[in-house]
Structure prediction request, 250 residues.
Amino acid sequence: MALSSPKPIPIPTLTVLDVPIHQTDMATALTQIDTFVQSGVPHHIVTADASMLVIAHEDAELKQIVQSADLITPDGAGLLWASKRLKQPLQERVSGVVLVEKLCALSPERGYRLYFLGAAPHVAEQAGEQMRTKYPGAHIVGTRDGFFTADDLPALLEEIRSARPDILCVALGIPKQEKFIAQHKAALGVPVLIGVGGTFDVLSGNLRRAPLWMQRLNLEWLWRLLQNPTKISKVKLLPRFVQLVRQHHK
Ligand code: UDP
Prediction:
C-alpha cells in the first residue's frame, strides 16, 4: 500500500480485572487498524468479552498476551455492564463479526488483503465467498480451516506468508487463537492479526446473528445459547465475571 503512514491514535483505556480495554467505538477501531496496516509491522488485536477476561484471570499466559496486545476492543454485554459500574461507560461493542465484515467492506477501496484462518472445514471458505459476493472486489487472499495438526503447521505458515495478507483473521476460539497469534506473529510478518472467535460461523451463513431487538436488549448470548446449547459452558462464565468484577472493583 503506497499511502503515507499515519501514527497510531492514542486511545484511553479502562482496566477490568487487570486487563486494559480500549475505550473505542467501531469507527476509531477501524482508523487505528488502518494505521497498523500501513505500518507494515505486526500488531495483535484482541476482541475481549467477559468470557475472555474470566479465562485470562485463571490463565497467566493468556492474560499477559492480552495485556500486551496493540488494540483490545470491548465486546459483549458483560463488558458494557462492567464499564458502567466503573463509571467509565463504553460507547459501543466492537465485536469480531462486525469488525471483520467492515474490513471486508473497506477492502476494495483501501486495498486490504484478508486471510481467513479457522473454524470447521469449508466454513472459512464459505465466509470468504459470502464476503466477496456482498462486497465485490474484496480481497480475500486465502482461507483455511482451524483443525490443523502440529505437522501441518510449517506448511500452513508458509501458505499464509506467501498469500501476503495485510490482515489475518484467526478463529480458533479463546485462548487458542490468542496464543497462536502471539507465537507466530513475528514469523508471519502480517501487519494486523485479529482473534475473531465464531465469526466465520456467522459470516458463512451457518449461524444466524440474533434478531436486532435481541441485540439491542444485549441478549445475543441467549440467542447463541438457543442455537447451540453446547455454548452453556461459555454462558456460565458470565455470573463468574460479575462476581469477579464486584470483588476486584469495589
Ligand atoms: N475452532 C477451530 N479450531 C479448534 C477449535 C475451535 O477452528 O481447534 C473454531 C470453531 O469451529 C469455531 C471457533 O473456533 O468456529 C470458536 O468459536 P466460539 O464462538 O466458540 O469462540 P470463542 O467464544 O471461544 O471466541
